[in-house]
Amino acid sequence: MDVVLEQFEKAAKNASPIGGTIKFLLDDNAVFIDGSGEENVVSGEDKEADCTISTTLENLMKLRSGELNPMMAVMGGKVKISGDMGLAMKLQSLLS
Question: 2-95 adopts what CATH topology?
Answer without folding.
Answer: Nonspecific Lipid-transfer Protein; Chain A (3.30.1050)
